[in-house]
Structure formats: structure tokens, C-alpha cells
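Researcher: Going back to the complex we discussed earlier. I've cleaned up the inputs and rechecked each line, so this should be the final set. Can you rerun the prediction on the complete assembly and write out the structure?
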Amino acid sequence: MTACPFGTRRTRRWIPWLSISVPALGWLVFVLYPSAATVYYSLTQYSGVPGAPVDYCGLCNYRMAFTSVSGPTWEALKVTLVYAAGVTVLQIVFGLGLAMLLNRRGRMFSLYRALVFMPQIFSVTIVGALFSLILDPITGPAEKILHGLFGASSAFLGDSNISLLLIILINVWMFTGYTMLIYIAGLRRIPRELYEAAALDGCGWWSRFRRITWPMLAASTTVNVFLTAMGCLGEYALIILLTDGQFGTQTIGMYMFQQAFGQQSQLGYGSMLAMLQFAMTLVIGGVVLWALRRREVQL
Amino acid sequence: MRPDVCRLGGRSPRRLLRPLAALGVAAVTASVLAACSSGGASAKNTLNIVEWTNAAAVTYTQQIDALFEKEHPGVTVNLQTAPTANAGWPTLESSVLASKNVDVLAEFPPGPAGYPPSYTHISTGNPAALVTSHQLVNMANEPFMKYYNKTNAEYSAGYDGGIYGVPAAEYVNVGGMWYKKSLLAKYHMSVPTTYNQFIADCKVFKANGITPVFVAGKDGYQNILFAGIYNQLIMQGTPASDATTLSLNRNKAFWQGKQEWTDPVYQTTASEYEQVMQYIEPEAAGVSAQTAPAEWAVQSNDYPFFIDGSYDGNTITQANPSLSLGFFAFPGTNNPAWNRAPLAPDLTWTVPTWAKHKTLALQWLALFSEPSNYAGWVKATGSLSTETSVPTPALKWTDWLSAHMNNAYDALTTPWAPNGAPVDATEPNTTAMQPIGSVPAATALQDSTKDYLNAVKGAK
Amino acid sequence: MRRSARDRLLRALGVHSLSFVISAGLFALPIVYLALQAFKSYPEFLQNPTGLPSSWTFANFTSAWTEGDFGPELINSLVYALIPDVVTLLLGVFLAFPISRGYFRFSNVLYAFFVFSGFLPAGLIPLFVEARALHLYNNMVGYLVLTSFAGAGFFFFVGYIKSIPREIDEAAALEGCGYFRFITRIIIPQMRPALAAFAVFGFVASWNNLILPLVMLSNQSLWPVTRGLYGFMSQYTTQWPLIAAGTVIVAIPVLILFGLLQRHLVEGVAGGAVAGAQPVTQGPPSTTDAA
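Model: Rerun complete. Updated structure for the full complex:
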């Protein structure tokens, strides 16, 4: 603990508290309270309809999730993991590749970077509508191309084999720009001398990448992996718009949303799923952060 | 205060402050502008109406709103809508209920089977939960209720002697099928009256290179076919007035384990369903319900049949006004007398007891219910009329329906399932079933049975 | 290894082509496709969904503009994205600084607490019951308060602040600089890359938010474009040309804004190179760091 050097002898003790007072208060009211309420509701069979009985029942929802109706819950957890892993890996690969390709001077490259970043500024609504249109198996251009080039046809989002993959790709399409920017920031921090020394030593392109670029980008990778993975674990808006969680795309976030807001809303059960999601996020987030930081330190 | 002190090595903070200040001014101006323009809308007399999206229904509602505003100067009507697909409607409904910010709320009526008996310990969703917790206004004694068919109103929105909603619309949902008159005429076919005849027709079409059936597999509309078949197989010749009792007995039998999804009637349903599904368009699993009607309408030389409810009438005619089309109930049995139209009460206007503008809401409903206005509603939406003095208008596709209203009945409801039960407990999952999914129908039936039994056991 | 001028030119051309194909072809083409549909009439779209418009019509744009009310909605979106972004940013710095410097006895614990609170299950229903009770429901100020105080800026800043040398604090304090002045005039300008990264991330996230406005803002006049476009799309479900026109109308000002600012965005996020500062995130402050 350090002492705050600011203020007079009288005010010194209070400055840190004052500093965090407003944000901490906001946190208490808008983050802690709803979460506490969710924990409480997860122990009930409350339907969510105002005026309906709250029906406290202890761990009944948790028991149901892991025993009699376990199918959808485990399936959702599995899908979520695949989804998060898929998006993270692909976004890192593409983000890094694009960063290395487009990290050059010039107005044209500035334009290219802008184009890559552009999909993010279109909201989920637009992206969902756009890809629904493109992937329509009767009238969409994707069908035309598939049929024209390969003579094949596909239900695209309606095909359980590729539906999740398509959603992963759409998600990557939307957010690679941000990953790319963070990597560009990281690339620009790598001292030129390292590359010059490597060139003198006669190192090839791949060698330079493996020995200099990738390790030096460890911190950027940490940020990207963490943000992307955390974002995916809670994602459901895009999935709702594209497949409504069907055809093998129901993540735990979607399942929770459907239980909380679905036609037969069961807020108690949905809150329990939210707790599950949180537990999963905590575990994965913790593991990822620990592993990556350890790697950072080692490098 | 000494400004020089708080600078790092003489660098002026103005470089950062200027763009920040500019942004700040822009943001404040924008928010003031926005607040000024929105100031009027949060006026004291805003009637909040919430309904789901059905293009024709929404457009007509807006017309009624305009009429209402003219008759009640100083009142603004705020209409909010969201599509039923992709979780839009449930989210909107939940939020306006939780915030108690709605005066007239459209609901899918619970019907008598919407109130599971207390021994099931099932806490119902909306709107049954609203009714039982006394949060909806009882309209049985409102003057405008006299316009409506009483039996119908009691069926869809009745509970404990009261009527908790205005039954505005009724359609054929399960069992619904559209057809293209010209295509059927081209091959000298009339509307099939038995199941075998339907399959025979499909074979002829297939032999001529035409895909017989179109369906929006992405949003599960093939379920309309499945449920339509077992409805007819179970109802058979039972009088329409006994439909409710039949439905309730069926639900009870399921709960007590006396009926299961693997029973012979459902096996028959499944095999008939599978056979029809051999004739659907390839890649149907990717076709969404929002684009399907227009896509079907535009292809005048293909897809003679379309699995969809009668609520999409106007969407279809709008996409292709020159299409001569018709609507009928899919024949699930080989006895023409049993192939009846299952009816589904649809949009029901309700008023919450805590609504801020209850009087205005009831006045709005009174305006809506006036026969002249209601007639416009049924014409616009293609709904069957629920008012005794307003006949169902003869639209170009309603010929079969008008001829078969005498033995139409209220469709069977799905069995009661405990909270948190998987979706296929209440009905076999046609999205998982072949050909949309990958599970054979017989297996899907077994899965449903298992899931239902487990759910009920877990709840007891 | 000598490379002729021609080889260099070919290489540059290759890089440009690849970059162009990827950025324009992969990222921009889908949007261009959607925009093209806006120029077709509805029957034409039904007949020819994937080809170029044969008769370029502007009717959809005028219809979309009058039916969609996008002008005010764009302003709303801007307000809902900008103000909470700035507020969360400021509050985030004031929260992060004392924890980063270790002014509290249990700074580690506090750090972990706040970081993971960002991932707590955010019960939407309890949130509106609360919002309603606090009169935050269905008004602009309420929505801004709600989104400004639930932000997650904290995570970005703590590590970055650690890279700013402590000597600056002490030097400033010795010269009599007050705490709040110190933060606003010295620390914040030093944190430009982290702030830029957060500002972009926060802005995009707020701009994109659909669920919260759907649920919290009932009056149409308060809607941001995400909600407005969603309502528009649901009302004109299959009329893609009309929807496409609405989308273009919404997208154009955003694109213009983005075009003007993107250089600053990229430079802002990447700008850390100039100051030679440490990466954006590091672990929690260790107790051994204490002076």
C-alpha cells in the first residue's frame, strides 16, 4: 500500500475514497444489485411475470439442470465453448495476418484498414439482416455462387453441420478489425533494430516471425484473446437474429435469454443459467488470463 | 490556483482539451436537441399499444390509432411492435410488463388449456399468469363485448366467469396449407380431400419436374403440418363443441402417463409427415418464415403447395397480386369428413389493471370493436371474423375456408409441461426430425416421450 | 541480394491487390450488395434477387426516410454512444488510479473484484424493475445514467497507469498540484492510447446495443438506430429493397464520421509506440511494488 501524496494533511486520507466514490456507487446500484437479484431468482421458480408468485425452492433449478433435463444445458455449454474457441482462434489468426499485411504507410492502406474495421460500426441488427439475406438458400447470392461454381446447394444456416461455423465466421467478419488494430499497435512497438539484426543474420521470413514478431506481440495477444473470449461467452444477439439458437447454435447465453424472455418465460431457470454462464466465464477467464500472463512473463 | 504547476514538463494540455471540448459541446447540443424533440412524446396523454408484427395488422392498427387521435384531441397513440421470430416479441412483452408501461397489450390467448390444474405445480407464462394474478381487466361487462361471439370470447379469453381480452383475430394455424389454383388446374386436380389424394397429386407434380411443397424450415413451420395431421387424427368426427373437453382430457391423460408421444396415433402422424416431407424443396431448413411467403408467391410455375397459416394471406398477395391462390386445411386422414379446419384464436387485446390510461384503453377498444372498423380489420388481415354481425369477407383465397366453416373446431392444445422442460416434451421437435434435422421420426417420438416423462417426474 | 526496381514494383502491386481484394472484397462487398438492393423496386427484387438493378430507383430511399424517422434516431444513437463513453472513461480513470497506485490496503482484492464484476450475470429483469423504481425507465437521461454507470472501463486502465512513473505523482504533489487536477491534466493526456482503445471499444459496443434500448426505451422518439432499424425491419419484413434503403440511410453518416475519424482511431490505439509505453494490460498491482 502506498500513501497518497496529494492533498493536505487533513484531506489526504479521504482522497482515494472520494476518487472511487462515484464509480463505486454506480457499480453497487447497477451491477451488484441486479446480479444479487439474479442469484436470488436462480433459487426460485419465479416466472418473471410481475405479480406471479416467487416460489422459493432452493437448489431445484440447479438440480434440474444437471439431472432430469440435462440435455439442453450440457449441449449449450458445449456449443458455447466451441463457439468461443472458434471465434478467438480465427480472429487472432486473421487479425494478426491482416495487421501484418496492412501495417504500411500510405493513404490506400489507411483505407484498407478502415474497410476491415467497418463491419463493426454496423450494428448487430444490420449484420444479422444482411447475412440472412445473403445466406437465403433460395434467393441469396451465396446459393448462386455455390451452385454456379460447385453445382452444390446448402441450407446454410439451416444445416446443423455448418450453422455454427457460419455464425463463427460472421462474428469474425464483424470484429476482426478490432483485433487487427490492437495487433497493429503491438507491431509498431517492436523495435526496428531487432528486425535489422535478424536480417543481418540471414533469418528468413518465417524465422523472423516465430522468433521476434510473435513473442513480442504476447501482450497484444493476451488482450485480444481475453476480450474476444469474454465477449463470445456472453454473446447472443447475433445468434438470435441468425438462427434463434436452432441447428446446433444454442449457446448458454441464448438458452438463458430464451428462458428469461421466451414465450413461456421462466425467470428462475433463466437466472440459474446466467449463474452457470458466469461460473464458466470466471473459470475460463481466470485460466486464460493466468496462462497468458505467465507466458508474457516468461517471454 | 496556479495553472503552471499541473503541467508535465511544460506540455500544454490544450491539445487534448480542444477536441474533447468540441466533442462535449456536440454531445450536449445533440442531447438538448433530442430531448427537446422527445419532450412532446412523454406527454401525459399517451396511449401505449403493444402488438407483434403482422404487417397487415400493424398497418390497420395505425389507421385506428389515427382515427382515435382525431376523435380524442390531445391524446397521442404510441404503437410499439416487434416480430414474433427471433425472440423479438417475448422480449418486448416482458419489458413493457415489467415496467408497467402499456395500456393495450396484444396477447396470444391462453384458451382453457392455458391454466394447468394446481396439482401440476406449473407456473404459467403470459398471459395466463396475468389473468390468475388479477392483472388484466375483466371486460365481460363492457358495452363493446356484445359485438363479439360470446362462446368464442369465453373460449379464448375466459377464466372463472370473466372475459379478460378482446378476441380480435382468428386464423387457421396448424394444418394450414396454401395452393396455387392455376398449377392445380393445369394438371386437372381439385383441392385434395384425402391424404392419399394429396400424395398422388404430389407424385404427379414430381413426375413433371415440379417441387410440390414449399415450407419455411428454418423457423419450424413444418410443425404446422405435423400438428395439423394429429389434430385431425384425434378429433375425427367429434362435434366442434366438444373440442375443448377432448383437449383437456388429452392433457390430463398425458400428465398421468396414460398417453405418450409413442402412441399409435402419433406414429401414424409421423409416418404421414415423413412421406409429405419427401416432397418439399431442397434446403428447406435454410428458408426463413419472413421471406418464404414472398418467395413462394413469386414462383408461379413451381411449388403448388405452401405450408403456412392463413395469417400470411396479405403478405402473399402483396408479393404477387396476380397470383390466383387458395387456402385449405391439409387432409391428414383418408376420411374426407374428418379433414376439418383447426382454428386458432390469435390476437387478443388485453388491458392491464395497472395501466395508466385504462379509460382511454377501453375507449380505444370500443372504437376498434365497432362493426364498421372491425370489418376493415378482418378485410385487411384475412382473419376469420369473431364478431357476430360482421361476416368473414370473401377474399380471393377464402373460398374453401368459407365452405368448411361448419365443422371447423378449436385446435388441440399441447400437453402441460413443467418449467424448464425441454421443448420437445410438449411436442415432438420437427426441426430435429428428418428431413430438416437428422433424427428419424420414430426416434424423435421416443425422445419426446422420455423428455416429457422425465420432466413430469422431476416436478412431482 | 539485389532486387530490380521492376521486382519491387511487382511486389508492391501484389501487396496492394491482395489488400484490396481482402478489404474491399471480403469486408465491404456484403454491404455493397445490400446497398445495391435498395435501388430495385420490390417486384424487381423478387424476380431478380442477386443481379444488378436494371432500373435504378430512389423511391425506396424516400419511403424509408419518411417511414423510418432515422434522422432523430441517428442523433439519439450518437448521444447514447458518446456520453456514456466519456463518462465511463472519466469514472474509470478515477476508479483505476487509486487502485493501480495501491492507495488502499487491499488494492489487489479490489482490483480482482472490479474486473470480474464486469462479467457478473446482469439480470435484465431486476435491472428494469430497479430502473423503473429510480425513474430511469423510458427517458433519455435515465438511459444515459444507466449506461454510464455500468461500464467496464476499469479493466483497460489499471495496467496502463502502472506504466506511468510514480515520480510524476510525487513531483506534482510536491509542487502543490491538487489530486483532481493532476488526474485530468497530467494522467489523462498520458493515457491516450489506452483511452483511445477504450473509447473505440465502448463507442462501438454502445452504438451496437440492441437489447437494452429494446427493453428500456418505449417511446419511439427515444430510439437509437439499432432499435429503429429493428422496428423498421420487423414492420416491412420481406421488403428487402426498403430495408436496404433504411440500412443505407443509417450507415452513411456513420461511414462519413468513421472516415473522418478513423485515422485518429488507428493512431490513437497504435499511438503507444511513440510514447514507448507498456502494453495496455498487465496484472494486478503487486504489493511489492509499494515504495
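Model: Worth noting: Confidence is low (pLDDT under 50) at residues 36-42 of chain B.
Researcher: Good, that matches what I expected from the previous run.
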